[in-house]
Write a structure and sequence with these properties.
With 255 residues, the chain is of the alpha/beta class. The protein contains eleven helices and eight strands. Helix 1 runs parallel beside helix 2. It is globular, with a radius of gyration of 17 Å. Bound molecules: 2-phosphoglycolic acid.
């Protein structure tokens, strides 16, 4: 397995955008544009309340639907939370876990990221696990240590077999929603570092077969250059995924 045999995954992260009717319209528009572009897997991660209309609109298309978070318990007294089995039954196939906005604003820790990852995998969902350094960490030259630590803690207790359903998204926090993008070189180095951590934790086959995405202001203008890098197997796209034409251009770049 290498870059040529790993299937790229282009995933949109809508964040807290789109009502259910807007979701329907946007999935339909996106589907019409990405039709037949089967050189990568295409996922849209939507707000919980949009899942039903997004799943319906994506039926029979090459778009799969994901959620943006999941709780780690199976059920119980967790007001406002959503479990993995609930997601699965609504037709969700993917879930983003550990996004920096969850870490920053909602008290997400490496430990809860690990618990959520386990719960999602047990239910049969594919996990898009986010890791990434903040600006001060990059400036202090500890990016590798941070990425290594976040990856190891998130994957604690997760088997080699389960890794087949784990995608890692390298998302430098300083590049998210800021218009600043990691250079292709920086993205490649960080994704390569994460791959070497996987080789240590598991084995070379697992490291080589895991999809590692880049995320952080990826758009129609910079996607091709980023996706050309040997360790960058796709993208997790925020802002540009809200505009079907831009998202389609990124999908096209991944073919
Ligand atoms: P952005 O978001 O593309 O808007 O920077 C990426 C993300 O947060 O996944």
């Amino acid at each position: 397995m290498n870059k040529a045999t790993r299937k790229a995954v282009i995933a949109g992260n809508w964040k807290m955008n789109m009502t259910p009717s807007q979701a329907k319209e946007t999935v339909e528009k996106t589907a019409a544009l990405v039709k037949g572009k089967d050189g990568c897997d295409i996922v849209l991660c939507v707000p919980f309340v949009d899942i039903a209309s997004a799943v319906e609109a994506a039926k029979g298309t090459n778009i799969k639907i994901g959620a943006q978070n999941v709780h780690f318990a199976e059920s119980g007294a967790y007001t406002g939370e959503i479990s993995a089995s609930m997601l699965l039954e609504t037709g969700v196939e993917y879930v983003i876990i550990g996004h920096s906005e969850r870490r920053q604003y909602f008290g997400e820790t490496d430990e809860t990221v690990n618990q959520r990852t386990k719960a999602a995998l047990t239910a049969g969902l594919t996990v898009i696990l986010c890791v990434g350094e903040v600006l001060e960490e990059r400036q202090s030259n500890i990016t590798n240590e941070i990425l290594s630590m976040q990856t190891k803690l998130a994957l604690a207790g997760i088997s080699t077999e389960d890794m087949k359903k784990v995608i890692i998204a390298y998302e430098p926090v300083w590049a998210i929603g800021t218009g600043l993008t990691a250079t292709p070189q920086q993205a490649d180095e960080a994704c390569g570092l994460i791959r070497s951590v996987l080789a240590d934790l598991y084995d070379e086959t697992t490291a080589q077969s895991t999809t590692i995405q880049y995320g952080g202001s990826m758009n129609d203008g910079n996607a091709a250059e980023l996706l050309a890098k040997v360790h960058v197997d796709g993208g997790l796209i925020g802002g540009a995924s809200l505009v079907p034409e831009k998202f389609d251009a990124i999908v096209t770049a991944a073919q």
